[in-house]
Structure formats: structure tokens, C-alpha cells
Design brief:
globular, 14 helices, mainly alpha, cell membrane, transmembrane, membrane
Length: 322
């Protein structure tokens, strides 16, 4: 080897020492630092966006619930007592709870079945199509359509002098109220309640239906399974927690409804919300001033049980949706 080659080799080996990291000299170098080394933005400012909702929930949910619980355990003089709870065992109150359970159960089951069938039909249309958009928009509106407006709509349609009632009686000889004016009694609540129960079921159950993966159906067909096998052994077991959760939500929704029933049933207190109204405005409950509070406690217990079961079913549903 020549002397010049030897010198070049020694010069090259002189630069093979350990690498030295230099601090960034400009903004572009600083951007390559790990994200963990940068200071994190505090989320306190972002939490201010929850303030309006928190105030709303506090004023219209937490405070009324606390007052209902408090008044149920105190008498008119403010002394603690459990005598108010004895009203829950009275025949009239038990009958009101039975009627509320009956209306809620019937409308929840019927609304859940009809809503599930609507969701199944929507699987055949495009998610961004006109039909799906219309059904989603209508469900969002009708699920909140209740109270006096809904009661008036049914009175004007199938009331004693309603449009449909008069048409059927004059043209076809069919009298909807031949056996009594059922629209203004507990059975008359079934149709109005279904009017908002079915859209609510569509809103809550449609995401679960859309969560069914096409690969599951393809795997079932590859293994020789039929559509009946797919729905009975694959889809239905997966959808069962979500369906039951939606069913409980519909039950709780009907059980706590007041405005529609108050507009239709003007006489008597045949369900629990109307019992509470009667206890608040009646002047014949001397010594039972806090009867409404004890009735509210009974409703709160039922609602807590329903919503706890609903939350448990929703948590189970989310496991396979992840």
C-alpha cells in the first residue's frame, strides 16, 4: 500500500467516533422533538363548554330529584317520618302503578318490535340515500313529539268528532267508540305513546343493526348456513343485549311520560304521574302534604332499576362493537 493511501485510511478512521447529538438550531429541528417532551395543553378551558349542560342538569334534574326524595321523608312540619311511604300500599296508588306498568310494558314491547322491523327494512336502502335521510330526520323529530300537540292530533283525528271517526261512522258504519270512549282512558294512551316509542326505537336500535358485519353473513353462507341460521344463531344473539336495552329505555320513557296523558285524561288519576299531579293540586289530602314526594320516590326507584339494567346491557353491547 502506498503512503498516500495509508494517510487517507487513517484520516477516515479518525472520524468514526461516537455520534454527538446537537441541540436543534432552528424551528424545523425543534419540531422533530418527541411529543412527550412538549408541554401539554391544559384541558381546563375546554371543560368550560360543559358548563351550560352541567347547570341545566343541576337545575332541572339533580335539584328536583333531591327535593322529591327529601319531601317524601318529611311531614308538613319538616320532621323526619316514614309515614308518607305507607301511601305506596294504598289500593288507589297500587292501581296507578299497575296501570303505568301495563301501559309502559305494552307500548315498549310493541314499539320495540315495530321499530326493529323498521331498522331491518332500512338495511336494504343506502345509508346516504333519500329514504334513510328522511326516516332518520322524521324519527328524530317524532321521538320528541308529545304532550298537548300529540294529544290534540289524536283528538282531532280519532276523537269523538275526529276526522277519521266521523268518516268511518258516516261512510262505513263503523263506530270506534261503540264500547265506550276509550281514547280518554288508560287504553287510549297506547296509540299516542306508540307514536313516539317507535321512532325512539329506530334511533337507539339502528346503530346496533348497522354494526352487524357483512363478513359474518358471508362466513355463514360459506359454511352452508341459511339466512334463518344466520339470524337465529349469529345476529339475534349479538343484537339481544342492544334490543333488551332499547326495550328498557322505551319502558322508562313511557313510565315517566306525563304531558300526553294529562292532556287526554282530564278526570281521575289512573297512572302514577297523574297521581302526583293530583297530590300536588288537591285540597283534600290534609295531613298528607308530602304524598307527592312519596309517589315520586316510587317512580325514582323504578327508573333507577330500569336505567341501571339499561346501562349494563349497553356496556355488554359495546364489547362486540369495538
Amino acid at each position: 500500500m502506498s503512503a498516500s493511501a495509508t494517510r487517507r485510511s487513517e484520516a477516515g478512521s479518525a472520524h468514526t467516533g461516537p455520534a454527538v447529538s446537537l441541540p436543534p438550531t432552528n424551528a424545523s429541528d425543534a419540531s422533530t422533538e418527541p411529543a412527550a417532551a412538549r408541554p401539554r395543553r391544559r384541558p381546563r378551558l375546554a371543560l368550560l363548554g360543559l358548563t351550560p349542560f352541567a347547570l341545566y342538569a343541576l337545575l332541572f334534574l339533580a335539584v328536583p330529584t333531591f327535593l322529591a326524595l327529601a319531601t317524601g321523608f318529611f311531614d308538613g312540619d319538616g320532621a323526619f317520618t316514614l309515614d308518607n311511604l305507607t301511601a305506596l300500599a294504598e289500593p288507589a296508588v297500587l292501581g296507578a302503578f299497575a296501570s303505568s306498568f301495563w301501559v309502559s310494558a305494552v307500548t315498549a314491547v310493541a314499539g320495540a318490535v315495530i321499530g326493529a322491523l323498521v331498522c331491518y327494512a332500512l338495511l336494504a336502502v343506502r345509508p346516504d340515500g333519500l329514504i334513510r335521510t328522511f326516516v332518520d330526520a322524521a324519527s328524530s323529530v317524532l321521538a320528541q313529539f308529545g304532550g298537548v300537540m300529540l294529544a290534540f292530533a289524536f283528538i282531532a283525528t280519532i276523537g269523538i268528532q275526529g276526522l277519521v271517526t266521523v268518516f268511518l261512522k258516516d261512510r262505513l258504519g263503523v263506530d270506534l267508540f261503540a264500547d265506550g270512549v276509550w281514547l280518554y282512558q288508560v287504553p287510549g294512551l297506547l296509540l299516542p305513546y306508540l307514536y313516539f316509542q317507535v321512532p325512539l326505537m329506530v334511533i337507539t336500535f339502528m346503530p346496533a343493526m348497522e354494526g352487524l358485519k357483512r363478513t359474518w353473513s358471508e362466513a355463514n353462507a360459506t359454511l352452508g348456513g341459511t339466512r334463518f341460521t344466520y339470524w337465529t344463531r349469529i345476529a339475534m344473539p349479538i343484537l339481544a343485549p342492544s334490543f333488551l336495552g332499547s326495550l328498557l329505555l322505551l319502558f322508562a320513557n313511557a313510565f315517566s311520560s306525563y304531558a300526553t296523558a294529562a292532556a287526554l285524561i282530564s278526570q281521575g288519576a289512573q297512572i302514577v304521574p297523574l297521581q302526583i299531579r293530583g297530590a300536588l293540586i288537591s285540597e283534600t289530602v290534609l295531613g298528607r302534604e308530602n304524598l307527592a314526594g312519596s309517589l315520586a320516590i316510587g317512580m325514582i326507584v323504578v327508573m333507577v332499576v330500569m336505567m341501571t339494567a339499561y346501562s349494563a346491557l349497553q356496556a355488554r353491547t359495546e364489547r362486540w362493537q369495538r
